Amino acid sequence: MQLYEQYRPKDWAEVIGQDKSLATINRLRKRGLSGRCYWITGQSGTGKTTIARLLAREVAENWQIEEYDSPRVLQADDFARFARLKTQRPLGKGWCAIINEAHGLRQDQIERLLGITEDLPPWMTLIFTTTCEGDEVFSEKLDSPAFGSRCTSIPLSRRGLAEAFATRAREIAQQEGLDGKPEKAYVKLMQDCRNNFRQALQRIEGGAMADE
């Protein structure tokens, strides 16, 4: 297993550098996290998938969570099933779908989702993730304002991540016996990776921070 998957946060306490986003989720939790659509945006490697999966686990059992790497894999049958779920409560506490790279949604898919996401029942949750650049692309699509109005926006922080990510990256490197650099070298690593934590761990795994 690659380091970034091995050390992916398994609970909210392990999420770093995204205090504002977690504060938003905590506020929403008081009224209930399920029965919503979420639109999570952020730079690559800053925690979109992690936060989406943690959210999903709060509103549905693992066997009722579906994750799609891209809208390209969604078929007509999937949208028909999503529509049926609005009137047929599944077993367990709820059902959730995570759709990554959501900026790739086609116009016909957006049109179908407009009907599905209107007045979601409390057992149904949809989570969309995209990069900051993808968010800009999506905003230019027809019906994107109407679709966006149905989603709770959770933008991830883009600044102030280097030191927090560097500290965690060094802890992981030390645990794996891959650490041979001073702390400031990890800050530079994060800057070089543009705070992409996944990319930084891949470099660490390849020996970038080991003794020369």
Please tell me about this protein's structure.
With 212 residues, the chain is an alpha/beta fold. It has two domains: 18-155, 3-Layer(aba) Sandwich (Rossmann fold), CATH 3.40.50.300; 162-205. It is built from ten helices and five strands, in the order ααβαβαβαβααβααα. The protein has helices at 3-6, 19-29, 48-59, 76-85, 107-117, 132-139, 144-148, 162-175, 183-192, 197-205; strands spanning 37-41, 65-68, 95-99, 124-130, 151-155. A five-stranded parallel β-sheet has the order 2-3-4-1-5. The longest helix has 14 residues, at 162-175. The chain is elongated.
How is the topology of this model organized?
Elements lengths: L2 H4 L12 H11 L7 E5 L6 H12 L5 E4 L7 H10 L9 E5 L7 H11 L6 E7 L1 H8 L4 H5 L2 E5 L6 H14 L7 H10 L4 H9 L7
Parallel strand pairs: 1-4, 1-5, 2-3, 3-4
Task: Provide keyphrases for this structure.
single chain; 212 residues; alpha/beta; Rossmann fold; 2 domains; five-stranded parallel beta sheet
Integer average pLDDT: 93
| Neighbour order of strands in the largest sheet | 2-3-4-1-5
Overall 3D shape: elongated
Oligomer: single chain
CATH architecture of the largest domain: 3-Layer(aba) Sandwich
Rg from C-alpha positions? 19 Å
Kindly report the name of the CATH homologous superfamily of the largest domain.
P-loop containing nucleotide triphosphate hydrolases
User: What class would the helix/strand composition place it in?
Assistant: alpha/beta
Question: What's the total count of β strands?
Answer: 5
Q: What is the count of distinct domains? A: 2
Distance between the termini: 25 Å
Main sheet: strands, sense, barrel:
5 strands, parallel
CATH class bucket of the largest domain: Alpha Beta
Into which percentage range does the β-strand content fall?
A: 5-15%
Order of helices and strands: HHEHEHEHEHHEHHH
